[in-house]
Every structure is written in structure tokens, then in C-alpha cells.
Amino acid sequence: MAEQLFTFSTSHSIIFGNHALDQINAIVKTVKAKKVLIITDKGIVSCGLVEPLKAQLKRIKHAVFDEVEETPGLETIRKCTKFARKEKFDLFIGLGGGSAMDATKAVSALMTNPGDIEKYLGSDTIRVPGLKKILIPTTSGTGSEVTIFSVLARREKDVQEPTGIYDRHMLPEWAIVDPSLTLSMPPKLTANTGMDAFSHAAECYVNKKSNFLMEPLALEAIKLIAHNIERAVAHGADQDARTGMSAGSLLAGMAFSQTGTGLCHALAETAQIPYKIPHGAAIAVILPHVMAFNLPERIAKFAQMARAMGVDSKDISDAQLAEKAVEKVKEINVKIGIPKNLSALGIPEKDLEKIAHETMVTGEGYLKKSPRMANEQDLLQILRNAFKG
């Protein structure tokens, strides 16, 4: 431990709890904002979640940009930034899942850093802090409200690939986590986003950058999500389950923002964009197979994960318990209705080699953090296992 240097960064202010949205007016007054842009998607607008926010902002000029798609494309960021510059907004509110929040981060940065979004893709590229932003998740999944990541997509004629900005300036000034905003999430979205949050905690807990600052956060997130996700999916109005999921997602976000994730995210992000698969679904299907691959290098930690998930550890070895962690994740997937395998997600078996190869090219950062080194054949075998289920 003495030889390692750790940095812990998260959102400047986190407001957590039911009806936390009511704090918006106080924040707006604090920053003396004159014109606010709400960045979201059409699904959030159609289900009515923008209205309570607009009601809070009724005494201040505001507008809504609702064209964010899943994993926002660079063209979407350009369009929103052009609109924001023209209308001279001075405060941004990202309302929705990870895509809306990630778009908000990118647009905020482009308001104070000149040039096109392409100039800032990659790590530590932002030189000037962006305009102030408030991020409000309506799902319990990405943890984007407390991460340094803005996950984007390059969508061109012959290119469909993940990209993004990874920079401390992506952290918002305020994160408002209000579990009551997640009550209307349908079961499928609850399952997908919940397993995404679980994977953040699980992957960062075992990866090479894992450290004593974030391990307790990751392990508590694993516990909260494993103990609440089935109830949240089956009984969406269960306030306690929703609060547990929101807390788990928040803690997982705080943890993996320090360490990154691993092989599961590398593979899932390569696969999801060209095949238009929900991020959380791809993650959930691939995760247990990545866990099984990594297990020999982190037996003690996988055993701890099993205990956190409520697996009975009496009279069995850590090695046996670690294997039960993998089986427990598979069991949760079945109970919450996650598709059985990659085939069920619509990925052709003939494309697995292509996905493995592209992951080696675009996922280098993820692969370096994996507790077990993986080559292209290893990735292909993981995909084949996930294809069978």
C-alpha cells in the first residue's frame, strides 16, 4: 500500500434522498443562473419526469433539449452545443439515465473550451472547467452523476464505435440522487440499469487499480444491489428497494470512477453500438463469463462478493465460495428477466471474432486493468461462452 498513490475525486456536492429534487431552486439561486437548459431524452419527457423539474424552475428562463439517444453520438453533442451557445444558457441540468448525463457533461465542457468535440475525445483533454451543471439520474445504473466519464459514440457510415471524454472536469458541481424519480422505471429498464451498476462495483472491486479507498464502497454497492434488484424489478413502487438501488448505483459510481472497470465493459461497449443493444443488457449477459475468467486471480475477493450477495459461506472454502459468486449473478439474471445469452440479444455467432478483435483495438484501457491478462483468443472464448449462455 505504501508504494501506491491514490486520488479520489467525485461530484462536488451530492444530495441524496426522496424529494431531493426540491433542492433545485436553492442551487439555482446560489449560482445566480439566468437561463437553464435541461438536457434529456424523449422517453423522460413522455413519462412526465421533466414536469416536476420545470415546476421548480418556473421563475427562471429555461428550455429543454430532448434529443439525446442511448450512448449519445457526436452529432447530438454538436447539435446541443450549437443550441446552447446560441441561446446563451449559463446552467445545465442533465436529467435521465447515463446518456443524458454524459451528454450534459460534454456540452458543458464545449461551452468553455473552443473547437469541435473531436478535439477533446480521450483522457485529460479539457483545459478549462465547463459551465456549471447539475446531474439528476432517473435510473439506478450508470452512476454518471459521480464519474469522470462522458461515454459517447462515433456513428458514421463505416464506423460504429464507442468513444468519449475521461476527465476530472466531467464531474458536476451538484449530483441530485432522488430515489422517488426511479419509481416509474419499467421492469426491463430496472433490470438492465441495475446490472450495469452491479458490474461497475464488481469489476472495479477486482481490477488492478482497486484500492482501500474504494473497496468498501464497491462491496457495499454489491450488497445493496444484490439484495434489492429483484424486488425493484418485481415491485417497482417498493420505495425501500428503489432507495437501496439508488444508493448502490451511487456508491458503485463513486468507486469505479476512481479505478475504471474491466473486460466486461470492454466487450459490451464494442458489441452494443453496432447491434443497438441496451448497454445494461449486454453487460449483464457477459458479466458472469468475465467473472469466471478472472476468478483464478481474485479468489478471496470473489468469495467476499459472494458473502456480500448473501451466499451461505458456512463450511465451504473461499475457492468454492468464489465460484458461487458467479452462479449467484447468473441466478439474479434469470430472476430479473435478463436475456439468456448473446444470441438472444441478436448478435450473430459469425460476428464474435470481429467483436473480439475490435475489443483488442478499442478497449486497451479496460484490458490493462483486468486482474487477468486477456488476449484475443481469450476474449473470443468469453464471447462464445456468453453466446451459449
The portion of residues assigned to helices is: 40-55%
Measure the end-to-end span.
38 Å
Largest sheet: 6 strands, parallel
Q: What is the SS-derived class?
A: alpha/beta
Shape: globular
- The SSE string, one letter per element, is EHEHHEHEHEEEEEHHHHHHHHHH
Model regions low in confidence, pLDDT < 50 over at least 5 residues: none
Q: Main sheet: which strands, in order across?
A: 1-9-6-4-2-3
| Rg for CA atoms | 20 Å
Determine the CATH superfamily of the largest domain. Dehydroquinate synthase-like - alpha domain
- Count of separate DSSP helical elements: 15
Number of domains: 2
Describe the structure.
- The chain is α/β, with parallel strands linked by helices and 389 residues long.
- The chain folds into two domains: 13-181, Rossmann fold; 188-237 and 261-388, Dehydroquinate synthase-like, alpha domain.
- 50% of the residues lie in helices and 12% in strands.
- It contains 15 helices and nine strands.
- The radius of gyration is 20 Å and the shape is globular.
- The two termini are 38 Å apart.
Features:
alpha/beta; Rossmann fold; Dehydroquinate synthase-like, alpha domain; 389 residues
Describe the secondary-structure layout.
Layout: E1 13-16, H1 24-31, E2 35-39, H2 42-46, H3 50-56, E3 61-65, H4 74-87, E4 91-96, H5 98-110, E5 122-123, E6 133-137, E7 149-155, E8 160-166, E9 174-177, H6 187-206, H7 215-234, H8 239-259, H9 263-275, H10 279-294, H11 299-308, H12 318-335, H13 352-362, H14 364-369, H15 376-388
Parallel strand pairs: 1-9, 2-3, 2-4, 4-6, 5-8, 6-9
Antiparallel strand pairs: 7-8
Helix pairs in contact: 4-5, 6-7, 6-8, 6-10, 7-8, 9-10, 9-13, 10-12, 10-15, 11-12, 13-15
